Amino acid sequence: MPNLSPLLLFVFLSVVPIGVSPEHTESGRQQVHISLAGNDHMRITWITSDMNAPSVVHYRNSPGNEVTVIGESSSYRYLSYSSGAIHHVKIGPLEAGTIYHYRCGDSDEEFTFRTPPASFPVEFAVAGDLGQTDWTCSTLSHIGARNYDVLLLGGDLSYADTYQPLWDSFGRLVEPYAAARPWMVTQGNHDIESIPIVHPHRFTAYNSRWLMPYLESGSMSNLYYSFDVFGAHIIMLGSYVEFQRGSYQYTWLVDDLAGVDRKRTPWLFVVFHTPWYSSNNAHRGDGENMRRAMEELLYEARVDAVFAGHVHAYERFTRVYENEANTCGIVHVTIGDGGNREGLARSFKNPRPMISMFREASFGNGWLRLLNETHAHWAWYRNNETVGMISDEVWLRSMSLSEICNTSSVSSLESMKDEL
């Protein structure tokens, strides 16, 4: 969409359709997606054009034992646009590694999802900057062809950029995938959608549609939270909410890291939108202030890897801290290549920095497989191939078991290896 002044944008948005288009059922049930919601629970979210449709989920894991749970619904207005009823229902407790069947509201259509396992291996699909293009469909197809447990999405979901019907079409696009596996997301700059004077509120659609377990993790904002999957603690941070020392997010992060038990969750990962490390010429320095504010916290906590988006390319760094290779540092991965409409960021800084291990401007997706408490495998798949082919990969060793890093400080390495 072109850049418009607030006045022209107001006029443009005044003619957008109101509400969601009725699809799937007589009540317009659509855009089903699920997310983890605390220990042994799942949140089911969907939208109906019928504002009086019931916020209820019927679920079972075997014939004859159906459980019914009542939730809540809300809606929002964005200039002349009015959303449908957005339903959120939290179900559980659920058994690990189990297939559940569920129905939303008064619809007879049945969906299935599988809960994450209670033992290794655990598998994550990782993506960023999805949007709604042919490349998005390619990314989703590749991800859907693999048997992942949880999807991690590092921001910039719909690329609605204030045109609210695109949130609806995005929800319909991802439903076949997001209704079957939990999608855990954080926000990006394209999700902000504030307009001076006429709509100064930020993240209105994002917060209304993609409710994450922030209350369950002690956060005050849906823009940052954490959750556990067997063997791993995952922290989702907000690049576009205050992060300086003393801010709510910073204080929450300190407390969250202090509560991590690396014996129970030996793996520790962080996801946010704006990368702290990048040799791409796009968005240079956008994440620098956040890095300066928070990098030490993540370093001292011995975070294993960080996944970011924003830059529309793929890049993997060795373990780094304060812009230098460091044995006890964090592996940083930029994976903002999910399919966005703005195209690829093809220009990289040359020569390639020594700490950058692999970089490529291609659409793709990532795969993180935790084999056990000590070793994990990271792979990046380029979308070009009909059958997904690994274009970059590395073995990770959990920082929780590093005797060197947990007993003393280590200076920067002069050489990097492909087992980190």
Which helices and strands occur, and which strands form pairs?
Layout: H1 6-13, E1 30-36, E2 42-48, E3 56-60, E4 67-70, E5 72-74, E6 77-78, E7 81-82, E8 85-91, E9 99-104, E10 111-114, E11 122-127, H2 134-144, E12 150-153, H3 165-178, E13 183-185, H4 204-209, E14 225-229, E15 232-236, H5 248-258, E16 267-271, H6 288-300, E17 305-308, E18 314-321, E19 324-325, E20 330-335, E21 356-360, E22 364-370, E23 375-382, E24 389-397
Parallel strand pairs: 11-12, 12-13, 15-16, 16-17, 17-20
Antiparallel strand pairs: 1-2, 2-8, 3-4, 3-9, 5-8, 6-7, 9-10, 11-22, 14-15, 18-19, 18-20, 18-21, 22-23, 23-24
Helix pairs in contact: 5-6
Structure summary:
The chain is of the alpha+beta class and 420 residues long.
Radius of gyration: 21 Å
Largest sheet: 8 strands, mixed
The H-and-E topology, N to C, reads as: HEEEEEEEEEEEHEHEHEEHEHEEEEEEEE
Q: Oligomer, anyone?
A: single chain
Counting DSSP H or I runs of 4 or more residues, the number of helices is: 6
The overall pLDDT average reads 92
- Class by alpha and beta content: alpha+beta
Helix content: 10-25%
Morphology? globular
Q: Estimate the strand proportion.
A: 25-35%
Extended strand count: 24
Contiguous uncertain segments of 5+ residues: 1-18, 22-26, 408-418
Distance between the termini: 42 Å
Report on this structure.
By secondary structure, the chain is of the alpha+beta class. The protein starts with 5 loop residues before the first helix and ends in a 23-residue tail after the last strand. α5 packs parallel to α6. Helix content is 15%, strand content 30%. Strands 14, 15, 16, 17, 18, 19, 20 and 21 form an eight-stranded mixed sheet that branches. A six-stranded mixed sheet has the order 13-12-11-22-23-24, covered by helices on one side.
